[in-house]
Amino acid sequence: MTKTNAGRFFEDYRVGDVIRHAVPRTVSGGERALYHALYPARHALHSSDDFARACGLAASPLDDLIAFHTVFGKTVPDVSLNAVANLGYAEGRWLEPVWPGDTLRAESEVIGIKQNSNGTSGNVYVRTRGLNQRDVPVLEYVRWVMVRKRDAASPAPDEVVPRLDRVVLPDALVIPDGLDFSDYDFTLAGEPHRWGDYQVGEVIDHVDAVTVEEAEHMLATRLWQNTAKVHFDATFREDGKRLIYGGHVISLARALSFNGLANAQLIVALNAGAHANPCFAGDTVRAWSEVLDRAPTNAPGVGAVRLRLVAHKGPPGDLTLKREDGRYAPHVLLDLDYWALMPL
Amino acid sequence: MTKTNAGRFFEDYRVGDVIRHAVPRTVSGGERALYHALYPARHALHSSDDFARACGLAASPLDDLIAFHTVFGKTVPDVSLNAVANLGYAEGRWLEPVWPGDTLRAESEVIGIKQNSNGTSGNVYVRTRGLNQRDVPVLEYVRWVMVRKRDAASPAPDEVVPRLDRVVLPDALVIPDGLDFSDYDFTLAGEPHRWGDYQVGEVIDHVDAVTVEEAEHMLATRLWQNTAKVHFDATFREDGKRLIYGGHVISLARALSFNGLANAQLIVALNAGAHANPCFAGDTVRAWSEVLDRAPTNAPGVGAVRLRLVAHKGPPGDLTLKREDGRYAPHVLLDLDYWALMPL
Amino acid sequence: MTKTNAGRFFEDYRVGDVIRHAVPRTVSGGERALYHALYPARHALHSSDDFARACGLAASPLDDLIAFHTVFGKTVPDVSLNAVANLGYAEGRWLEPVWPGDTLRAESEVIGIKQNSNGTSGNVYVRTRGLNQRDVPVLEYVRWVMVRKRDAASPAPDEVVPRLDRVVLPDALVIPDGLDFSDYDFTLAGEPHRWGDYQVGEVIDHVDAVTVEEAEHMLATRLWQNTAKVHFDATFREDGKRLIYGGHVISLARALSFNGLANAQLIVALNAGAHANPCFAGDTVRAWSEVLDRAPTNAPGVGAVRLRLVAHKGPPGDLTLKREDGRYAPHVLLDLDYWALMPL
């Protein structure tokens, strides 16, 4: 019985430790097809090899969130198996497209640690990198989680809280080699709106909605080899509910955002993110976006747009984000801050 | 909020307009595997590269209905987002096999328009073509839908109702290049019945049944990038039900028809089709077929058979199609008229 | 109506008959991705091409159970469509890895037959072989099932009960060509435990659990083109339940066993197996293993371990296998006896 992995507890992390996560994964056209079955994903660059070639790429890369979920899933047994909460993301950047046939693995460095005042848990900060079969980083991001202590009596470690950028600066965005939106086909992409048409402060209600089923979120979460019990085992929580993986909500919201942001083709940075409230099967998920910033890039025809993406389970058109006390409204599921690339 | 696509209304169609639909799609072995997971599909030509090669093809093409659903899905945002009903199909022909790696896009020409007497909606007729990455047409069909008017007070357009063939003539059927059933292996295909064994008027009850789940029809419908809200959003209809995409029922019925029609390997024409009654999760779907016609072809060993394929949610063996008043019996879901190719 | 396959009855089997099963199947990266979505499968050799190459293989073969299910599914219409019970397995051996792009077909020889004392059914023993597109056997196993008689009055056949080995001897295990665990990366594989760390008699509770949904087991069972009505048709059983394909439980349990047996990379033999009790949607499946034996092999760095794999739907930590009367405890779903390969 001692051969199973009970996961790490708060005491098991030391700042500077580098964890090589297990189970590398080769991804292919199968993962791409499943992504389209699981999410209403329609961004043309991730749907069509020909569209991607017309944008200067060798073929259609796998969805940016396939890369994210695959890397994230690898970290779960080492980082969040005993996590009480997934607290935040920062400094996320996509560094290289992932192509069918690539093999991904992940490493995390512990960059911060801070015991909570109640003495039973603490926050752990890790910087995770996904690498392909040539050891080229494809993705990196910081995540911090609240992890249970094994023993409340164990002494508190020295506190290290990393200084994290609130936003990835436009100069730090990595544009895929060769990307060129000069001859972008807006009709094939599905919408006429270009970079210049989006104004900072503009809010877009994405109109569509998806009611989530147990089978769907479990298929998705397993696909990323994410093993957290709470997503799969209806006997794990006292209320008999299976908590939906937060990344499932990210992908749902991003896919729903096609309607109004069809040309926000590639995600290149994750500035911040909060899973505001839990999502369960039966919830009907909607999404809206707010334009937070815009920046030019060096790539031909390519602009960057910074977006807030909010997922909620409220009625259509309810764009409330926070309550009067500053906390998230109870129907809000996700508040994500990211950079995407659009045609000028 | 004006950036989202509200879909076209009846007033937005003009006869002669050609709509280039958005979001081209590269299909692969992933879509093939999902098709086998979603439907009990067993026709050998779409299951085995080796079987297909023994029939003169380069490899196993993707299921004919994968081509249909992919093309159909592209048309939804432009044709049927505000449709009240999907009224009919005609003059459908498969023109070229779709291979893994192909990229499909779709175009539709408006060929007819007719306001309804109540003034709040009208019928729109479109001829849709699916094209591959070499701009070769892979599929064409006529579909007509009832679409809401934006404004009941807007004037009725000049009425144009296209003359449509009630059936695709055998001479117009397109046989895939190289198809040769001379050395057909009936054992591997699963049944001994050949073209000559099917008599016009013969009825085959396909015996098997599938009880449909919400997760399944949503996975399937999303896979074809079909975005109609009514399939995904449990809050959209007043009764809280998600309407199952009619094409899901077509694929279920076609797959169930293997049992008795295992050698009807390829669909080459869609003569007509009616979604007689809505299908919802929890329904148990059964199918039966009637042989409507037979015709020789020029390809070696290949005959064509015209079939009526009926899906229903009634008890086993209930082959009732219509009520005394000529309307479809309430348990009938689908009445499809198509041509398939069989070994002589 | 006579064109549909009613399946074989007990009277239809003769010892020595060889049945060529229908519908060959080409498997690809799509099936691999679906396997990861359907089961929490994480064994690195089936997840990563690079990991497999570091173990001497050309690429990552498809999961051994993909091969098993695909071959098994082909036999259903000929062997178990009218089966009352799936009674046992023996002498199962994996003979050659299955690679993406391979086409599998199956043949079964009837090797035994024995009417039951009640005269209404009998046991049929078949030796099934799966073959790839080069007619190389990839898998063979013996299975016996209880099959209904068409007519209780038909005479009993001469009884032939094959002598079956209770366990595949270590010398008979087939190691994939080139397999070499000399440079095995235990960190990437996920656990440090090597062949020498497992003691005969040791029991490992795999801790994780999965609550099963209807959509999931139907997707899986269809993927293997297994057509038994009882898995898909909620009107088939009087209690309105869909019986979950026993192989689905095998794959669930094997995937759950990663936690404690991450290095048991390849299944090479199936010694015995019993589906102790039926599994239905809503059940939460757990698994535990017992080490039954160990043996060296001729391949560099590779040892064989014989394992009992038990799946159950009881509470966490309930490792009861049998009741006092020697029958399986009611919460036990599966009792499987197999050989796997591990690094020394």
From TrEMBL, chains A, B, C:
<dbReference type="InterPro" id="IPR052342">
    <property type="entry name" value="MCH/BMMD"/>
</dbReference>
<protein>
    <submittedName>
        <fullName>L-erythro-3-methylmalyl-CoA dehydratase</fullName>
    </submittedName>
</protein>
<dbReference type="GO" id="GO:0016829">
    <property type="term" value="F:lyase activity"/>
</dbReference>
<dbReference type="InterPro" id="IPR029069">
    <property type="entry name" value="HotDog_dom_sf"/>
</dbReference>
<dbReference type="InterPro" id="IPR016790">
    <property type="entry name" value="Thiol_ester_hydratase_Rv0216"/>
</dbReference>
<dbReference type="InterPro" id="IPR048274">
    <property type="entry name" value="MC_hydratase"/>
</dbReference>
<dbReference type="Pfam" id="PF19315">
    <property type="entry name" value="MC_hydratase"/>
</dbReference>
